[in-house]
Each structure stands twice: as structure tokens, then as C-alpha cells.
Amino acid sequence: MLDKSFDPTAAEPRLYAQWEASGAFSPKTDGAAEAYSIVIPPPNVTGSLHIGHALNNTLQDILARYHRMRGKSVLWLPGTDHAGIATQMVVERQLAAAGSVGRREMGREAFVEKIWEWKAESGGTIVQQLRRLGASCDWSRERFTLDEGLNAAVRKVFVKLHQDGLIYRDKRLVNWDPQFQTAISDLEVEQREVEGAYWHFAYPLADGVTYEHPIAFDEDGKATEFETRDFIVVATTRPETMLGDTGVAVHPDDERYASIVGAKVVLPITGRHIPIVADEYADPTKGSGAVKITPAHDFNDFQVGKRAGLPSINVLDAFARIVGTHLVDSKFEQAEGEYNDSGEESAWSREQQDEIHYIPVELQGLDRFAARKAIVARAEHEGWLREIEKTRHVVPHGDRSGVVIEPWLTDQWYVDAHTLAQPALKAVETGDTVFEPKSYEKIYFEWLRNIEPWCISRQLWWGHRIPAWYDADGKIYVAETEAEAVAQSGGKALTQDEDVLDTWFSSALWPFSTMGWPGKTDDLERFYPTSDLVTAADIIFFWVARMMMMGLHFMDEVPFRRVIINGLVRDEKGQKMSKSKGNVIDPLVIIDELGADPLRFTMAILSGTRDIKLSKQRIEGYRNFGTKLWNAARFSEMNEAVRVTGFDPATVEQTINRWVRGELTKAERAVSEAVEGGRFDDAASALYRFVWNVFCDWYLELAKPVFQGADEAAKAETRAMTAWTLDQTLKLLHPVMPFITEELWAELGKEGAPRDEATLIGAAWPVLPDAFIDAEAEAEIGWLVDLVGEVRGLRAEMNVPPGAKPPLTFVAPDAPTSDRATRHRDLILTLARVSEVASADAAPAGAVTFVSGGSAAALSLAGIIDLTAERARLTKEIAAFESDVGHVMKKLGNPNFVERAAPAVIDEQRAKLAEAEAGKARLEAALSRLADLG
Predict the structure, then answer these.
(1) Residues in Cβ contact with 309 at an 8 Å cutoff, skipping those fewer than 6 apart
(2) Higher per-residue pLDDT: 611 or 274
(3) What are the residues facing 250 on neighbouring strands?
(4) In CA terms, which of 175, 534, 569, 778 is 20 to 30 Å from 354?
């Protein structure tokens, strides 16, 4: 006999261990089986399971389990990412906490060894947590982006792309993290809104140049008054960068400055003369319309500088300090942006050294923010500070370090992403790879069509070290091994590049490197290209597009046939989860309290939206769904519903059995089509409807009289049908809720005829014939369900006490309705909670009429409800709905609200309006019915 309730704490570890030990997660070795493969988006090795992981891996597991049950050879390949900057930060913090020497004092080799030790001890945390979620990955094939095989693949790809002219070294702006002294990717940059200011500076014109600047205008905007100026005003939020200004830009159509384009200004503090250039980047409607241009410290300015031929001057070092002669000494003989042997500070070219001498000694070596204060103070003292305009603006911060990121001009390694992007664009345009939902293709296209060179070098020690070596003259030799590089150089002494590759570089090779490339392996032959990729929209650029580029370049084939984009999990109000807000839902806490299945089902049923609004209460609700199923199984067991040898559902005769067979068939169709289409929410909704509404609420209720009746043949058939239906239901539900279904499968298997399938994970997916759908049974039971539903709805609307049993009368029924009312009289009495089922030519006095199944019926409520009190209640509730409607309509009718509110807020208000209008209409109908009662 089943326990009273399912105990996930005890069952889940036991069941998962059984699955893993049985080899159920490995692909079938049957060569005839169709292959299905999917690679896990590798979580950071430093990570812990968060709610986004729970969503993403639940959806992948649904696909893996479903296709496994469909008889396919399924490979769900797992692994973790070495997470360069995050892992290095974790170990550095551990060293500091232990009072050990820092990484620079320790040296590169010893520090990297410490990281490997950390990984061996703590790096598998998230892998174990994925097991707790129920992820049925083939752990025997687990990979790590820095393991020996993947390192070989990375080196081969780098060398080949360099040989093809697709990897090169260049001086460009990067996102520079002064805390970690490394370039970082856009994904590692967090935009934060902060309090700041625009400082308006007056730059004096050189050589005695003046111009007439408008100061008054008429109604048409035409200048009416002018003043003679020998300066031009610019504004900046970063005064410290002015030391590196090499130009001032104005719009080519801005008449105010047309006469001084080509003239020069004297840059305050430095005394350098810099030109005024015309460029469309300058916006005449913003501020003075003139923009200071600092090509070495702003991405937009860098482009203006290229167009105008302006030089780029770095005025910050790797630690975001103002550069100075203290940085220029004999140990810096490399190209700008390189590190010396100790990896301490960036070196400077001779041109850069000349520029340093323009910077006053008192500013040299200052932290950027200290320099900002000093420059503003000097501007105020010397009179060229014209205004300080307070503002809130967005400033980039390192997501790991938390410090302000600097655009910084430095030498780095780049990939020619534009060239690699062309086949990747074509593959999606022609449908070789498709996105679900299709709307995400637009994001993919826009990024690839406007792609910039990809900076792939990072100034870290943990990662794939760049396979490039330098001789004493700075000549570069790129090879897979040092021996090959030395051979290329003719036997010279070489030094390897200190940098490592961007983590995304190795991740871009994930679909094929994990299967053994560059070798020709059985896994590559069988499972590449992969079938599906499930991932989030925010890494379409950083990962999906790059996997497409690398897969097509090295494998001549797309890496996956379909990309399924999952949404972003937010809190119940639609806000982003964050520890500072205290609204984070920890999936591990949920699993501890409620089990993995309710979390998984919630993830699936809510997965159809871009922004998933999640609350613990919703998860608890789907725990109740599991409890409902468990109780249904207990009820079935108590009524001796067990499998029967030779039972054939095609031969059942009872109407309820033919009906549930058809409903199960429709559910199987709906679930199969939804999973195949990547619509996990539709699959979960179909399962919920069948399990809760059809099987539990209706079929088992309809079966009760049969179980308790004297017709032994009907009883035997219904018992067998109940057991068979429950088995098929467990199969359909298993991919979404694997633990409770596997436990029920095992427990229910102890009674009745033996099964051919010992475990549910290894069972075959039910594929039911169309003949199982019985139109006659569907119409018959559908009539009964609709009738009971109408009566229950009326009882609720009219506030009928639960214990009251009003009479039900069919008004002038036709023969089929009379026959049905007679056949199902006992069920109607019980399920609708009425005292009698009668027929009459007219509705009785004091009865509320309604229509069900095309026939009129009446529910007698006179003397059961207080008409006066009920009218007052309905009137009051209608007024409340009217107030809600008016309040929301006022908001939505306000143009300012509609323009400023977030789309999610607008949608929420529209949903509230629709809900209030529907509630008002429902109660108005109930009030109207009361009029029939007198």
C-alpha cells in the first residue's frame, strides 16, 4: 500500500542513484536508433545552482527524457566552464583569507596549481546540484573547458584561424577592469545608474581666433543676438580624460561653429593645441553641441578619431591612475598594453612617453577619481569651469570587481568576426538552424550584421594560454606547441604570450570539441550536429552566434538544428531577482522544502513568456498537483485498480472508460506535439488539465459508483482501465516530474500483472491510436461534465451554502436529454449537490434558469438564499469592480503613464482591466438572474 504522501527528501536521492547506476543516462548502443543530442550550456565551475539554471536545465531534461522514451539514442552532454576571471578571483580571495602570499608573489605556475587544487576540492558543486534537480546527463562524458582535450582543440583552432588571417593582433579600445587589470567582455560589464555630473569646460581658441556665437533667438529659432567668443564650451562626465583629448567635434551642419571648423583650441592644463573637427556624432541639440574627443578612452570617440585622423593618447595606466614619468623606465620595452615579466603595469611607447610630459607632475600617478577632483578644482580656480550640471547617468562596472570600467586603448588579440559571421548568418536565413521562438532570430541577425572584431585576449593567469611566442625583436610565432614555435623561429629563444584566451573562445567550440574533435570520433559521427540547444536570450551574441561561426568554419556544418530560447525568471512582481532586494528564490532551498518535481513543473508551465513571474506560492501550488496525483494513485489502489494480464483498452465498453481513453489520447497528442515544438508550457498545461481535471476530478469521481456497484463486469473493466490509464499518465508526466512518477511506477508495479518495463525512465512513450477517441462517449460525458460545471458555477455566483441541495429541473427536455438525465441521475445528485433531478414543461417559481448542452434547466433557490442580502452583496461587489475598471482605465488613458511605464507594467494593468471587466460582467449576470426569483 502506498504511503500517505510522497517523501521527496528520502525518494529523490535514492531514485537518482538508481538511474545513474543503471546506465539509463547513456546513449543507446543500438546503431539503428535515431540519434538525439544536446549539449549543456556549461555553468561556471565556481557557480551554485540558481533559478535560471533550474529553468534551463529542467527544459533540457524534459527533452532528453522525452526523446529517450521515444526510443532514440540520447546524448545530453554535460560539463562546466573554467570561468577565468571568476575562478581566479575566488582563489585569490581564499589565499588572502588564509594569510598566504598573493598570486604575483607566488608566481604563475604555483598559482595555477593552486586553482587546480581548488577545482579538485570544490569545483564539482554545481554538478552535484544539477543531479538534485534530476538532470539526466551522461556524466560519463562530462567535460571541462580547460581539460586536456579541449585545450588541444583550442590551440588547434587558434593556430588555424591565425593561419587563415582570421586571428590577428591590433591596438583597439577594450573594456578594461582596473581591479583585475584585464580586458573583459561586454557580458561581464554591468550598467549601473549612478549620481554624477556634467562639468562644462570652456576651451580657449588658439592663435587669437574668435567667432560670433548666438545668444538670443526669435520664435522661429533664428538667432537675433550674438556675442564674440574666443572659447568653445564642452561638457564631460569624466574630467580626468580631458588630459587625453585630441580634438573637439561639432556637427557639420551646425552653423554656430561653421567658421571655426579647422581652427584649434588650447587644451587646458596640458597646453596642447587640438583641432576642431566636423563629425555627425556631435548632436547640436545636446548641451553646447560641441563634444570633446578622447579616442583612447571612449568607444564613440575612438571612431570619431579614426574618421578625423586624430591621435589616441592613453592617459590612464592599467590601474586607472594618471600616467606619468614614474611609469617610464628600462623595464618597459614592449609594445603598449603589454606586461613585463612580473605582470605589474602596462608599458608605454615612445610616442606615449612624449605625451606624458604634457601632464603636470602633481597629477601623475593619481587615481582617476582623485585626478577628477584636482582637475575640476583647477578649472574652477583658473576660470574655465562654466557650469556643473547634476545628473543621473549609466556607468559601466565590472560585474565581478564592482569597479568602474574604463575604455582603454591597448594591444590585444582579435578574431575577424565579420568574416566568420557570414556563413552563420546564411545558415539561419536558409533554415539550417531555427530559433524558437522565431522572433529571436532578429536579435541574432542584428548583432551579426553589425558585428565588431572580437577581442579574445585576457590579462589573467587562469585559462587557455595564448599559443603565441615572441623573440627578442618582438616577432610573433603562432604554433600549437613551443617546440613548433621554436622551429619556426629557426631555434631562437622565445617567450610565450602572458595572456589567456577569453572564456567564450573555448565555449564557442563546445558542441564539437566535447565530442573529441580534432579527432574523428564515433560521437562526432553520430551526434554532431546536435539536435537542440536550450539557452537564454542574453547570450545569443556571446555564445550562440560564436558557436555557429566556429562550428561552420571547422565542421562545415551548423552546431545545432534548433535553438530554444528560455525566458528570464523574475519575482512575482516582474522585478529582476537580486540579493540586495531580498527577492531571490533559491532552487536548492525549494528542493529541500518541496522537492524537485514541483519546481520543475513550475518552470515548465511558466516557460512560455520572456519574463517569468515566479513566487514560492506558485511552486507550492504545483506541489499540490503532485499530491493530487499521489492521492489518485492511493484511491485507485484502495479500489483494487491494478494491471490485468491481457487487458486491451481498445475493447472497453463502459462509457466513462471509452471517454477517458479518448481524453488520454488527446492529452498524449498535445504533450507530444508541444515537447516536439519546444512549447514546454503547453505540454505542462495539457498534463495539468488531464491529470487534475480529467482523471482526478471527473474520471475517478465517475468511477466511484462503479467501484461501489454490483455490476462485476463493469467494475473489473473500470479497475483495469484505471490502472492502465494511470500507467500511461505516469509516462506522459515523467519528463516533467521524474521523481514522483518513478516512485509511483515502482510502488504500483508491486501489485497486479507484471510490467515489461522495470523503470519508468526506460519505458516507452505511449503512442495511442486515433481510434481510441470515441465521439459518442465524448458527447455523453461531455454533457454531464458541462451540466455539473454549470450548476457548480451557479451555486458559487449565487452564494448558495455548501450544505444546501436545491432541486434541479430540466425544462421541456428533448428525448436525448431526458435519457441522459435518467442514466446519470445518481451522478448528478452527487456531483452537482442537488436534491432531485426532475423534468417540467416550465421552470418552477423561484428558480434560476440556465442552458447546458443546448437544453434549458432551472435551479430552485427560493428559500435557500436571502434575496435581499444577495442583491446587496452583488451590488457592492459590482461597484468594487467598476471602481477598479475606472482606476485602471484612467491610468491607461494617461499618455505620460503609457510612455514612461515599463512594458511589463502596462501589460499588468491591461490584465487587471480585463479581469475586472470579466468579474463585473459575471456578477451583473448573477444579479440579473436574481430578478427571475422575484
Answers:
(1) none
(2) 274
(3) 278, 290
(4) 175
Residue 527 phi/psi, 5° resolution? -115, 0
Provide the CA 371 distance to its chain's centre, in angstroms.
Answer: 40
Which string of DSSP letters, residue by residue, matches 736-786?
A: TSHHHHHHHHHHHTTSSSPPS-SSSTTSPPP---GGG--HHHHHHHHHHHH
Residue in the structure block whose three cell numbers are 536508433: 33
Q: Cα separations (Å) of 47 from 52, 111, 113, 114, 612? A: 12, 20, 20, 18, 22
Amino acid at 81: D
Instruction: Look at phi and psi of residue 167 and say left if phi exceeds 0, alpha if psi is from -120 to 50, else beta.
Output: beta
pLDDT for 329 equals 37
Q: What is the pLDDT of residue 357?
A: 66
End-to-end CA distance of the chain: 55
Give the span between the Cα atoms of 210 and 262, in whole angstroms: 13
Q: 888 in helix, strand or coil?
A: helix
φ, ψ for residue 228 (rounded to 5)?
-80, 125
Rg (CA), the chain: 36
Mean pLDDT of the 834-862 span: 88
Report the percentage of the chain scoring pLDDT > 70. 96
Amino acid at 147: D
Per the listing, cell 441541495 goes with 805
Instruction: State yes or no: pLDDT of 929 exceeds 90.
Output: no
Would you state the cell numbers that stand for residue 300, as one nine-digit string? 564613440
**Residue 383, SS3 per DSSP:** coil
Residue 372: partners with Cβ closer than 8 Å, 6 or more residues away: 238, 239, 240
How many Cα atoms occupy the beta-carbon half-sphere of 58 within 13 Å? 31
Instruction: Please check whether residue 569 is in contact with residue 577, taking contact to mean a CB–CB distance below 8 angstroms.
Output: yes
Angle at 756 between CA 751 and CA 758, to 5 degrees: 70
- At 190 the pLDDT is 92
CA distance 754 to 923: 54
What is the predicted pLDDT for the residue at 352?
A: 54
Cell of 115: 586553482
- Between strands 385-398 and 560-566, the pairing is unpaired
Give the residue with greater pLDDT, 276 vs 350: 276
DSSP conformational letter for 307: H
C-beta separation of 613 from 606 below 8 A: yes
Percentage helix, strand, coil for the chain under 3-state DSSP, each rounded to 5: 50, 20, 35
DSSP single-letter state for residue 321: B
- Cell numbers describing residue 469: 611566442
Q: What is the pLDDT of residue 345?
A: 37
Q: Grid coordinates standing for 206?
A: 588658439
- pTM tops 0.90: no
What b/e sequence results for 560-595 when a residue is b if at least 16 CB atoms lie within 10 Å of its CB, and e otherwise?
Answer: bebbbbbbbbbbeeeeebeeeeebebebbebbeebb
3-state SS, 254-276, equals CHHHHHHCCCEEECCCCCCEEEE
* Residue 394, beta-bridge partner list: 193
- Say what the pLDDT of residue 478 is: 98
Nearest CA to 861 among 876, 871, 875? 871
SS3 79: strand
Q: How far apart are CA 221 and CA 873, in angstroms?
A: 63
Distance CA 851, CA 789 (A): 12
| Residue 457 vs residue 929, higher pLDDT | 457
For residue range 711-731, list pLDDT tens digits in order: 999 999 999 999 999 999 999
CB-hemisphere CA count at 13 Å for 259?
13
**Mode of pairing for the β-strands spanning 500-501 and 855-860:** unpaired
Q: Which helix (H) or strand (E) holds 680?
A: helix 680-688
> What is the distance between the alpha carbons of residues 244 and 249, in angstroms, rounded to a whole number?
15
Nearest to 356 by CA among 322, 333, 331, 379: 322
Average pLDDT, the chain: 91
Q: Which stretch of 566-570, 660-664, 847-851 has the lowest confidence by average pLDDT?
A: 847-851
